[in-house]
Amino acid sequence: MPRTIDLNKIRNIGIIAHIDAGKTTLTERILFYTGKSHKLGEVHDGKAQMDWMAQEQERGITITAASTTCGWSVSGEDHVINIIDTPGHVDFTVEVERSLRVLDGAVVVFCAVGGVEPQSETVWRQSEKYNVPKIVFVNKMDRIGADFFGVLKNIEQDIGVNVIPLQIPLGAEDKFRGIIDLLEMKAYIYDNESFGKNFHIEDIPPDYQEIAGKYRHIMVEKAVELEDSLMNKYLESEESITADDLIKAIRKGTVINKIVPALCGAAFKNKGVQKLLDAITLYLPSPLDLLPVKGIDPSNHEKIIERKPDDDEPFTALVFKIQSDPHMGKLIYFRVYSGHLEAGSYILNATKDRRERMVRMLQMHANQRENKPEVYTGDIAAAIGLDHTTTGDTLCLQEHPVLLEAIEFPAPVISISIKTKSRADQDKLSRALFRLSEEDPTFIVRSDQETQETVLSGMGELHLEIIVDRLKREFNVEALVGAPKVAYKETIISSAEEVYKHVKQTGGHGQYAHVVLQISPAKASEGFEFENEIVGGSIPKEYIPAVEKGVIDALQEGVLAGYPVVDVKVNLVDGSFHDVDSSELAFRTAARWCFKNAFKKAVPVLLEPYMSLEVTTPEEYVGSIVGHICSKRGKVLGLEMKANQQVISAEVPLSEMFGYVSTLRSLSSGRASYTMHFEKYMQVPFELAEKIIEEKKKEKK
Questions:
Q1: DSSP secondary structure string for all residues of 535-601
Q2: Can you name the residues that pair with 294 across neighbouring β-strands?
Q3: What is the 3-state secondary structure (H, E, C) of 586-642?
Q4: Residue 489, CB half-sphere, CA atoms under 13 Å: how many?
Q5: Residue 43 pLDDT > 60, yes or no?
Q6: Average pLDDT over residues 308-334
Q7: Phi/psi of residue 627, each to 5°?
């Protein structure tokens, strides 16, 4: 089948924002106005099409990134928009991370009342990491306290970006009627009776002409700065600048991330969404506007390979999501960067160096799907049949191998233990956990041999709560869940040197290895560094990797309480070997025990995860909330007034914050809200560390 729509008419976008800014509601309106759906689904009714999981419908939040495709026409030209609706809750930040890795543009939704909220900044930073061009949509203009101009100011000050207003609101709060388009200098009034499908265009009301003129001037000034030829034209006469001139300049500036166009509306009240769709097609890039994707040659990591966004290039795609489907098994979501491929073709998984068959390809609409006989450059689709493929893998042709940069994910910070109620459920639990961990790279499963428990680790309490709920509903596994546990780590604050000889005599060959290790603290978050300083061959080269492996073995379980060891530098400075009795195993064993003994000498300490906490509360509850934070070993970093509410910024140890949602409700009569995400690891106070170590020893017994 030939391509049905030109590549320059395709837009791959994500909807990203802080929790409850209205991402899913906005996506539902987009589907309605583009004709993809014929009924408005509401989040609060549990009827939103993009929130298809039972857990999403019950809680009214997005948990998993859902993909869909719709069409939109601007100036008589048809476009295809592939949309990924992402979660706003920080526990599911992995969904935003992997979506942004494969998207060409994003719509960042801000609440007109809340403005720049903590997760808004987080998702913005994630998009900057992947250099994703953005459009701002200031939503909820109908809410009490809505302030479009205040939000723009916040975005410029708090995030530090150049925002260019393309619209201003016509009214606000309960008087919000529509928008004023600064390019056309016309007012768009939306008809409530037709769910906003119908609108009429009027002249700007007299009382809005002055402010519209002011912001039109700001828009023109910012646009002409992006194009030298326009600047000359502007200096001669501002009136000579046409709408087409401005659109071209704004598009250019948006694609290269120099400016961020800003629009406004009220998705729930069906106002402003069609103009946002126009802006998506006019200003956000098509795959052709972006630089060729770069990868490396799997057989020679020094060699850089480029793949242009072209159907005639060799097929190259990146897997960004795995979804476990009860009827179809494993669904592999991928983005095509170059070339085309037919269903049933064999491809190479370059990451795993494995040949696999693309049995079927699907076009996804949330959890609904239709068969896709062929995929082309710029497509986002799902596949069935790739049994050995996981998130971050590169798919390509066997004759043209390439390895794209994988996706990095944050490490989990909280754990729970889980046991099945019956022996019969144990196998079901293992299979279910394997499938769930394939889906979610921030969900880690391990077995504790000492306690005979299965330990689940994730990004937060809600994350693990959803996992346990899915085990029960989707996989029919009844399990007993232990209390949440913090992912402590161990490190050192001093240096030490240790000598260790591993000598074992048995019948036949014995075992001999002698190593001298120096260990010292590394910088925070630097991880583990190994350096070989052996000169003169006191330990043969072939045994050096075994020494490093032995140290890595020791890092898995620290000396203090058996927690993983981080941020240490290890130098192998001396040693000796025996011609007959030395072996890789002997040196691995010697290195492990040498490191453990050195670790005891180097003042070992316990580290705990600290969270960045932001509480938004009415002023009368500030005192009790701050007092509670301080009582939990937290440190208040600042207080700020935002939209008639006080915002408390603090750093708190995760171990003290379990069940904080209930505590905050009682402290504020249910009127305060909070967001919390992992910030850094810090040393546990000495007295508390002793208690944690003692408890861990009791567990082991």
A1: -TTSS-GGGHHHHHHHHHHHHHS-TTTSPPB-SEEEEEEEEE--TTT--HHHHHHHHHHHHHHHHHH
A2: 306
A3: HHHHHHHHHHHHHHHHCCEEEEEEEEEEEEEECHHHHHHHHHHHHHCCCEEEEEEEE
A4: 24
A5: no
A6: 86
A7: -60, -40
> From CA 44, how far away is CA 557, in angstroms rounded?
46
What are the residues whose beta carbons fall under 8 Å from the beta carbon of 221, sequence distance 6 or more?
Answer: 234
Burial group, residue 553, by CB count within 10 angstroms (0-12, 13-18, 19+): middle
- CB environment 250-271: b (16+ within 10 A), e (fewer): bbbbbbeebbbbbbbbbbbbbb
Q: What is the mean pLDDT of residues 474-488?
A: 82
Chain-wide mean pLDDT for the chain?
85
**pLDDT exceeds cutoff 70 at 37:** no
- The token pair that represents 357 in the structure block: 């068959």
In the three-class reduction of DSSP (H, G, I as helix; E, B as strand; rest coil), residue 655 is classed as helix
Among 100, 484, 626, CA closest to 320: 100
| CA distances (Å), origin 586, targets 196, 530, 581, 591 | 75, 19, 8, 9
Indicate the burial class of 153 (C-beta count within 10 angstroms; 0-12, 13-18, 19 or more): middle
Q: Cα separation of 412 and 410, whole Å?
A: 7
pLDDT surpasses 80 at 421: no
Which pLDDT tens digit goes with each residue over 586-629?
A: 999 999 999 999 999 999 999 998 988 888 888 889 999 999 99
Q: How many helices (H) does the chain have, and how many strands (E)?
A: 16, 38
SS in 3 state form for 431-478? HHHHHHHHHCCCCEEEEECCCCEEEEEECCHHHHHHHHHHHHHCCCCC
Per the model's pLDDT, the better-predicted residue between 59 and 666 turns out to be 666
pLDDT (tens digit, 9 = 90+) per residue, 225-238? Answer: 888 788 878 777 77
* Cβ density class 91-104: b for 16+ within 10 Å, e for less: bbbbbbbbbbbbbb
End-to-end alpha-carbon separation of the chain, Å?
66
Handedness of CA 680, 684, 685, 686 (dihedral sign): negative
Q: From the CB of residue 296, how many other CB atoms can be counted at a distance below 10 Å?
A: 18
- To which residue do tokens 């700020």 refer? 640
Q: Cα separation of 662 and 652, whole Å?
A: 17
Which range (231-240, 391-400, 679-688) has the least confidence? 231-240
- Whole-angstrom distance, CA of residue 62 vs CA of residue 66: 9
Query: Are the beta carbons of 653 and 633 closer than 8 angstroms?
Result: yes
Mean pLDDT value of segment 356-365: 86
Report helix, strand and coil shares of the chain as percent, to nearest 5.
Answer: 30, 35, 35
> What is the identity of the amino acid at 654?
L
Q: CA-CA distances (angstroms) from residue 121 to 19, 559, 587?
A: 12, 39, 48
